[in-house]
């Protein structure tokens, strides 16, 4: 399928466009950029014809281009809703980067407008297509080490230059929470398959750091799930890169460190071995995560099926993010409606390929 990449910033240039080289079912056929010369340079690098370079004004003319099946929106968060709705009206399916939007209302509009246009919407939650995370889900759901009691995660970094759009609330929607915290809001939900019923939150906003005039730096929160699983996470913009996930069960702890990076995801399992404690490490075969998710979307479009992470998955994350912000502002616990069905916001699970995609032990 042909893909129009919308926005030629850091993620598009360093991950998504190179990822097409590893994709089996998609190719980049159009680019959307506000800078013509940049668009031309990237187009010639990736073999995109000049006639398929669009800007943000003539974007709607994609409707006349049969070489584009879906758009991949890689713009600042507040623009996701507008460019999703315009793409759906132009008759294109939409793959949209996380966070899906900057409000629950915009996220719901994206879902309803894609439905109205009869077009599919997928949110680019790359971890749900990654072998290491798929294996962690299996271990939790099959109770490999007993019933999971507690999950903990951290996702933080200290690399945004001062003045970036990520620090402007109107463009980003918030700070570390929607940008990097969303990875484990989502992970806590997909590991358990449940939806949280109680939420608490706390945030810091250092007065002496210009990056945090409008947005939070560290965001810490807890989610309580109906089965009793308790999860805590902390996202941050001012500490050295650190991205881990740990799951605690009666017979072992297991998790990923790093957990949310583009590569080198590694699983650790700690358990009793006789009188000692053992630690096993598993590595997973590297695959470009963006190639995998784009291929998945093209296959689901072709099969007429919902993506594993459709718009409804993003809407629910925004509801949880909202609850965390409310809890942080007001103190105390915010309650969310109980949902009895597991995986209620997700499409069918990903069928992993037999060769090369499963984790393999690399020593203890
Ligand atoms: P970026 O700033 O590097 O790129 C954004 C692009 O949007 C730039 O080309 C910029 O010119 C363009 N743009 C158009 N209108 C703009 C406006 N009004 N203000 C600012 N820029 C404008 O950002 P990025 O890091 O590539 O992030 C883009 C999206 O991708 C975000 O939604 C982000 O959350 C998401 N993202 C996802 C991952 C992931 O691992 N899935 C990683 C990084 C970023």
CATH architecture of the largest domain: 2-Layer Sandwich
CATH homologous superfamily descriptor of the largest domain:
Dihydrodipicolinate Reductase, domain 2
Main beta-sheet annotation? 10 strands, mixed
Mean pLDDT: 95
CATH class of the largest domain: Alpha Beta
Give a verbal description of the structure.
The chain has 364 residues and is an alpha/beta fold. The chain has two domains: 2-124, 3-Layer(aba) Sandwich (Rossmann fold), CATH 3.40.50.720; 127-287 and 317-335, Dihydrodipicolinate Reductase, domain 2 (2-Layer Sandwich), CATH 3.30.360. The chain is 31% helix and 23% strand. The chain contains nine helices and 16 strands. The protein has helices at residues 10-19, 36-46, 80-89, 104-117, 131-141, 169-172, 176-192, 289-303, 311-330, and strands at residues 2-6, 27-32, 53-54, 70-73, 93-96, 121-123, 150-156, 198-203, 219-224, 230-236, 242-249, 252-256, 266-273, 276-283, 334-335, 360-361. It has a ten-stranded mixed beta sheet with strand order 15-8-9-10-7-11-12-13-14-16. Helix 1 (10-19) links the parallel strand 1 (2-6) and strand 2 (27-32). Helix 4 runs antiparallel to helix 9 and helix 5 crosses helix 7 (176-192). The longest helix is centred in the last third of the chain and has 20 residues, at 311-330. It is globular. Nicotinamide-adenine-dinucleotide is lined by residues 7-12, 34, 74-77, 79, 97-98, 124, 126, 165, 171, 179.
